[in-house]
């Protein structure tokens, strides 16, 4: 896959991640790139229901964190593409394999450093 195609893939991924996050979280403008999970409304339901909502909130928060991280990495990968440093491991500086980049286009570490 060439970089042009990969860039398109990253842009598409960025849009998808944003729309997923928008469904249940609100973007925090300060600091940039941080999202907050919306707390579900408590509309006078039973205590049990409230507990369920807290549980749901907790699981949404963990989903939010992983989506947020992926979005951050996607944005960084796009920035690196602009700079021409895309595909290099941020730890050891070696090239990240084609196979790995095809699987995870936003990868910023090689397979060895990611372990
Ligand atoms: Zn490395």
List the keywords.
115 residues; mainly alpha; two-stranded antiparallel sheet; 4 helices; binds zinc ion
Descriptive notes:
The chain has 4 helices and 2 strands; from the N terminus they run H-E-E-H-H-H. It has one domain. It has a two-stranded antiparallel ribbon. A hairpin with a 5-residue loop joins strand 1 and strand 2 (34-37). It is 60% helix and 7% strand. The protein binds zinc ion.
Terminal CA distance reads 25 Å
Output the number of helix runs: 4
Q: Percentage of helical residues? A: 55-70%
Question: What's the gyration radius in Å?
Answer: 18 Å
Helix and strand topology:
Elements: H1 3-24, E1 25-28, E2 34-37, H2 47-83, H3 98-103, H4 111-114
Antiparallel strand pairs: 1-2
Bound molecules: zinc ion.
